[in-house]
Amino acid sequence: MNVAVILAGGVGSRLDSSHPKQFFKVAGKTVIEHTIDVFEGNGLIDEIAVVMNPAYMATMEEIVLKNGWRKVKKLLKGGSERYFSSLAAIEAYAGRRGVNLIFHDAVRPLINNRVIEETVRALEHWNAVDVAVPAVDTIISTEGDFVDTIPDRSRLKRGQTPQGFKLETIREAYRLALQDPGFRSTDDCGVVLKYLPEERIYVVKGEESNMKLTYKEDSYLLDKLFQLRSFSLQEQEDSFEELRGKVLVVFGGSYGIGAEVAALAKGQGAKVYCFSRSLNGVDIASLEEVKRSLQSVAEEEGCIDYVVNTAAVMVREPLNSMSYEDICRMVEVNYLGMVHVAMASFPYLKESEGKLLFYTSSSYTRGRAFYSLYSSTKAAVVNFVQAIAQEWEPWGIQVNCINPERTKTPMRVKNFGIENEATLLTAREVAEKSLKTLLADFTGQVIDVKLNR
């Protein structure tokens, strides 16, 4: 029997958070939920045990019940040291024959099935298995503040988890370790290496993406890696059949990306309604107009599954030469309009557990000359999406944001003129990624759409 032991006893002090790092939210779920999901769905894992800080046991119980995991059989109390958590699992399964324990850090949520399966299969031949990736930097050994030695980097690797063991092997290693007054432990393979030196520890090739959430800076990288992983999964889909019969509302759907989203969704059997100033006089700067538009669709169809807002205004001028009318218009459409669409969509998406999609621009990461209003409003889109994604997660509403590279649209042509089309995305390409995002299972993400041709 293969038991995944999820080690979640940490308190996250280095993350500088009020909650343990395993409860940090990314892509709509806590880190530990993402981690357990992978093991729950792996066919070689028979059972899951979670080792928790006792102070958060009730929180973990709620998470297990909410997710309906069938393999989570034990919630165990850990201790102040990491090895106490390992010991809790070892003793919980003591006396059972044919058990393999696969220890994994709860805060490595990007573990994949390939690594899990190779770890489990290696236990058919070895009693202890580690996972590691090559060291890419030169490692130095120091004495005080001075370099002592520089080991040969070709022989060095960086350890990860999972680490797998035959139950009898890891239990015996710890039995001997606990008799040693000078025992110190950072990981379970280290215990086997020191106290059962005759055991050979096989090493499975890990993944650079199998990172551990430790410091605050790691959370930003983790966000981006989840985004990239989600899209690699979606790229395997060759149709949008799930859209058939769904009700989709597009604001700004008269031309450009919005029009392509509408056309592509209609072609897949979705019921699509478009609203814009040029199409039917709907201005998202007016909350009442947005409300009336959505209400008309709800009365016609009985529900709304998806709302997409592509409406935006761009005036590419220095701030000092921009008219106050243009300044107000950009804020009203790009910022207040977004808020209006979200507020008016909430009751309908709450009912359908639907999806809301906004658009930012690559200029959101850095304000640039001639873009002061446009880039600042697009930066606001990102912050707004991430915030309401967390606020609305309890109602099952997913909110995401598309960040396309330079795209050929009427708005861009108006501001930049004729450009080499080989350097631009098409509105159709962005629309395809937009619909894939609507069909994906994540929230609070900024989805980069890049030119690949």
TrEMBL record:
Keyword Transferase: yes
Keyword vocabulary terms for this entry: Nucleotidyltransferase, Transferase
Pfam families the UniProt entry points to: adh_short (PF00106), IspD (PF01128)
SUPFAM superfamilies given in the database record: NAD(P)-binding Rossmann-fold domains, Nucleotide-diphospho-sugar transferases
CDD domains to which the protein is assigned, alphabetical: CDP-ME_synthetase, SDR_c
GO molecular function: 2-C-methyl-D-erythritol 4-phosphate cytidylyltransferase activity
Record-linked PROSITE patterns: ADH_SHORT
Protein name per Swiss-Prot or TrEMBL: Bifunctional cytidylyltransferase/SDR family oxidoreductase
Gene source species: Candidatus Odoribacter faecigallinarum
